[in-house]
């Protein structure tokens, strides 16, 4: 099982091929240069530099001389606001170096690692002024709205109407703020709801019925796909 705080210290070398996963992955360089390719676009990550890989984005990495990074695997939607933005280098490097030190201790400081992800997000820097002027979308409320309607096919236009945007505006906002396409976001919410119901002891058949899956096997297959897309990290060895 991955650690509950989602932080790990990893070393990168030769490429192992591209892949994708169902959560945000945050990388901050600590040493060396990591050559990262995300959805066909390349970038270099050196000490203090970082990048956020959105759920579903295919990516690959390589480091000819070896690179070390602090990595955060998280499903926190607040990280969507950092997608496509680089961090404030010195601030982020100082924090990442301290968290890496904590991870390397046999008796790691639990408080530091528990609050590390939130501090890392704060250190990433403020949103651009243009983004802060837009009317906020209450994603939690929209998720609850969708939960009450799993029995019927929902579209991007349906969700856009709820938040008083055009379909194209809503689709762009979803990508900007959640890091995924609108329909992928909807699928994620349905699967999260299904897992919550299963966690309360409800049968697979009843969960499938309540969340609109066509059969229990369809629900089980969706859960397995999500698990397969979320690699279990091994400190100092795993790729992004």
Structural write-up:
The chain is of the alpha+beta class and 240 residues long. The chain has two domains: 7-128, Jelly Rolls; 134-227, Orthogonal Bundle (Arc Repressor Mutant, subunit A). It has nine helices and seven strands; from the N terminus they run βββββββααααααααα. It has helices spanning 89-103, 110-123, 129-132, 139-147, 156-162, 167-178, 182-199, 204-211, 216-228, and strands at 7-12, 24-31, 34-38, 41-45, 50-53, 59-62, 67-74. The strands form two sheets. It has a four-stranded antiparallel β-sheet. Helix 1 (89-103) packs antiparallel against helix 2 (110-123) and helix 8 packs across helix 9 (216-228). It is globular, with a radius of gyration of 19 Å. The model is unreliable at 231-238 (pLDDT under 50). This is AraC family transcriptional regulator. Keywords: DNA-binding, Transcription, Transcription regulation. Residues 218-240 are annotated as: Disordered. Residues 140-237 form the HTH araC/xylS-type domain.
Number of separate helices: 9
H/E topology pattern: EEEEEEEHHHHHHHHH
Q: Which CATH top level class of the largest domain fits?
A: Mainly Beta
Strand order of the largest sheet: 1-7-2-5
Give the CATH topology of the largest domain.
Answer: Jelly Rolls
The percent range for strand residues is: 15-25%
- Shape type: globular
Largest sheet: 4 strands, antiparallel
Q: Under the CATH scheme, which architecture of the largest domain would be assigned? A: Sandwich
Structural class: alpha+beta
> What is the fourth-level CATH superfamily of the largest domain?
Jelly Rolls
Instruction: Give the CA-CA distance, first to last residue.
Output: 16 Å
Helix content: 40-55%
Overall strand count? 7
Rg: 19 Å
Q: What count of structural domains?
A: 2
Uncertain stretches of 5 or more adjacent residues:
231-238
Q: Give average pLDDT, whole number.
A: 85
